[in-house]
Amino acid sequence: MSEEIIEASFKKSGVIIPSQKDADLLYKSGYGILHKQDEGSILGSCETLHLVAEKRLHVIDNENRKELNFPTLLEKFRSKDAEIWTRYLIYRDLRSRGYVVRDGFSFGIDFRLYERGKYGEQAAKYIVFGICEGIPTPIKKLSEILRFVQSTKKSLILAVVDRRGEIVYYSLSKLTF
Questions:
Q1: Mean pLDDT for the stretch of residues 8-22
Q2: pTM of the shown model
């Protein structure tokens, strides 16, 4: 991706990249969902936070035309997603390791994870589910997610974020005897 800073608009519907050229550039690198032809793209909250933190994106509030900084965006996203900080830490860590990370598709799944160099060529091989150390997660929920992930022929990765923000990854699979 080039070093050019991209402009985006913060609207109630999400963070919009209005320029088709910028939208295409981001999409090739695994960011955003393209709209119809020549209508730009929309970014997810973790994608937006990551690009702002990396100083690759300026987000302008559509209502007052002021630039939104990282803490302000985080608070806006937190009002809709209480787990945004945990999700962002996982997203940032996986991106820093060279993976393309896309939002999960349902069932409370956080992310789809593509093997390095395979984005755009193959479907995601892994599904990532994040939890925070010290916050109970029912084993039944993990079991249901594992069953769902295995039905899609993917592997489940459990990302555990500790109190210091460090992340440990575990591969989950069905226990057989």
A1: 90
A2: 0.90
